[in-house]
Design brief:
Layout: H1 10-21, H2 39-51, E1 56-59, E2 68-71, H3 77-83, E3 90-93, H4 114-125, E4 136-139
Helix pairs in contact: 2-3
Length: 148
């Protein structure tokens, strides 16, 4: 899959591409909307593009936004690792990871608790990237974050 294969997200991807082209990337992006509109798919494709070793440029029709989009090559080792969901610098965080927290193995995953955030984000965010130049964290179902 490629960033161009993501449907109905052109405006958001275009804003992201403009920030990337102007070297004005934010430290975080929030994808909001109803379930099933492609938030996770878009985030994953943008992560693949950012982690790609040999990014390519794709001409887009002029619609007031970015005319050239950067995209992942899809063939480099980093792209293949992202597709295999095995890239060491791409971290997906979701509520079911509560089972990996020592002492919480039997807890039901109803919210994304502070224990998961400590283990999966806070402990890892300060370390250097393993393969590339950046680390990416995708927090799925962020609306389920607990109050703490």
């Amino acid at each position: 899959m490629s960033i161009t294969d993501v449907k109905y997200q052109d405006a958001g991807i275009d804003r992201f591409q403009q920030a990337l082209g102007a070297a004005r990337m934010s430290h975080a992006y929030v994808f909001v909307g109803p379930s099933g509109i492609g938030k996770t798919t878009t985030a994953r494709e943008l992560a693949k593009m950012l982690l790609c070793d040999q990014p390519v440029e794709i001409a887009r029709p002029a619609s007031g936004g970015a005319r050239v989009w950067r995209d992942s090559c899809g063939t480099c080792p980093s792209c293949r690792l992202v597709v295999a969901d095995n890239h060491p610098d791409l971290h997906r965080v979701y509520k079911e990871l509560i089972g990996t927290v020592p002492g919480k193995e039997s807890h039901k995953a109803t919210e994304l608790g502070i224990d998961v955030i400590r283990q999966e984000v806070i402990d890892k965010v300060g370390r250097k990237p393993t393969v590339g130049t950046r680390k990416i964290f995708i927090i799925q179902e962020a609306e389920l974050l607990s109050r703490s």
